[in-house]
Every structure is written in C-alpha cells, then in structure tokens.
Design the sequence.
C-alpha cells in the first residue's frame, strides 16, 4: 500500500508504540516529542488516549512512559493463537510419519484452498507442488473437494464459472461434473483426486468439522507410482484418526480458530 494512502494519526500511534517498546528504560514526554517530531500539543492527546486504554503506562515517579499491559495481553493472545496452529502442524506431521506420504491441512478462501500446514514424507522423493501459504483451485484437489462437500449447487455456481479452468488434462471441466462427484463422495465422507491438479499425484482427503460445519480439511498426497489399492484402506484409517484429533484440538480452541481463520 502506498505510504501516502496510510492514515497519518494511526501511523503516529503505531510509531509511538514501537518507539517506546525499543526503549526499555521508558521515555519522557519531551523525548517522545523530539524523537517523533510531533508537536507537544498534538502528542498529548495521543499519549493520554493510549495511557487510558492501557497500551502505555505512565510512571509518576520518573515521569516516563512504558509499554502497557494491554499490549502484553494482545501479544500473549497471539502466542496462544500460534500455539493452536503449531498443535495442528504436529498432527499433520504425525500423519505423514504414519503413512510415509506428504500431508496437507488447509482452509477455503473463495474458490481456492489455502494451505496452512504441510507434513513432509520421509521418502527420498517429496511432493513440492504445494507449500504453506500457497493456493490451488479447490475443485482440482482432494483437499479442496473436502472443503466443498457441504456446498449447494448454487454456492458452487457462485464460486466458479460454468467452464472450469483446467490445471491438467485430468481436471474437471464443468461445475456440473464437480457437483456430481461431490454427491458421490458425500456419503463416504472422504474425497479423492487423481492428477487433476498435478500430473503424477493423487490425493485422499477428509473435511475437518466443528459445530456441524466444515471449517478446514486434511489430505494425503500420493505419487501415482507409489499408490496401490492395498495401501489405501490404511491411509484412510490414519487420515480419519488424525481428522478427529484435529477436530478435538480446534473445538477446545474454537474462539481462537474463528479469530484467525474464519471467513465469517
């Protein structure tokens, strides 16, 4: 965002917080005014408001400002929120260790799946087509299809054009094809994809549900040459077990989850 489009007063407030945070011995009114080149008449209401909201603490003993308790509480909340994703990451990594394949955890953003966690396989050849922070069209991945399982046909129409952009020659071509496939997969509660997003890779996935809603999804990606019908039942069993563990983790921290990842 261009610097000139930022709100000047908001920038000043944030700059003051960063300045005081860097000076653990505190700063006087005059020192803040001088360092920020802010006239004292303009600075006083900013400091008064920040002090009253406990973002800054004023010591009457030495007439200096320090970081306030409100920032500590917000920072502590951020750490707790990060711990939630770390706990999920541990389960995703554990799943990869159990099945010997790459696993993914993600959420739906518009019509795309957004990857939040990735578990690396211990095999010499690893899947590098997706990474944390990347996105893929949900209709072309097993993970994305799991996120779409509860969508109505009208919701799919709102997300996608009639003709779906193809990722590979095996990609679904229309939203009607997607709808029919989701109908078939709903009863089983698992979704599948074979080379629809990346040639040579297939996927099995499960939705992550809380409060009767699909909020995320978990998947296992398997190179076609390592896939076998004999391996699939055990991978599905491990996937469903980890799905339930992750659901328990999120349910216990649901308020944090909603703050971080809900689109509501």
Sequence:
């Amino acid at each position: 965002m261009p610097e000139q489009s930022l709100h000047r007063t908001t920038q000043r407030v944030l700059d003051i917080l960063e300045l005081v945070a860097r000076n653990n011995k505190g700063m006087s009114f005059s020192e803040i005014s001088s360092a920020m080149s802010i006239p004292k008449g303009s600075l006083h209401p900013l400091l008064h408001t920040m002090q009253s909201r406990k973002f800054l603490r004023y010591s009457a003993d030495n007439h200096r400002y320090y970081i306030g308790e409100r920032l500590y509480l917000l920072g502590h909340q951020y750490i707790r929120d990060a711990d939630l994703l770390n706990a999920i990451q541990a389960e995703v990594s554990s799943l990869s260790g159990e099945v010997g394949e790459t696993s993914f955890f993600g959420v739906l953003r518009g019509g795309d799946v957004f990857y939040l966690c990735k578990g690396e396989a211990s095999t010499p050849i690893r899947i590098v087509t997706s990474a944390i922070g990347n996105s893929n069209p949900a209709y072309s991945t097993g993970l994305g299809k799991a996120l779409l399982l509860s969508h109505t046909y009208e919701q799919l129409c709102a997300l996608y054009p009639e003709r779906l952009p193809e990722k590979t020659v095996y990609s679904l071509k229309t939203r009607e094809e997607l709808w029919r496939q989701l109908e078939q997969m709903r009863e089983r509660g698992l979704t599948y994809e074979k080379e629809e997003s990346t040639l040579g890779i297939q996927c099995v996935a499960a939705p992550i549900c809380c409060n009767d809603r699909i909020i995320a999804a978990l998947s296992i990606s398997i190179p076609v040459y390592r896939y076998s019908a004999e391996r699939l039942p055990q991978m599905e069993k491990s996937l469903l077990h980890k799905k339930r563990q992750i659901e328990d983790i999120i349910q216990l921290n649901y308020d944090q989850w909603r703050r971080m990842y809900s689109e509501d």
Q: What stands out?
A: The two ends are 25 Å apart (CA to CA). The chain has a mean pLDDT of 89. The chain is about 45% helix and 20% strand. The CA atoms of residues 185 and 191 lie 6 Å apart.
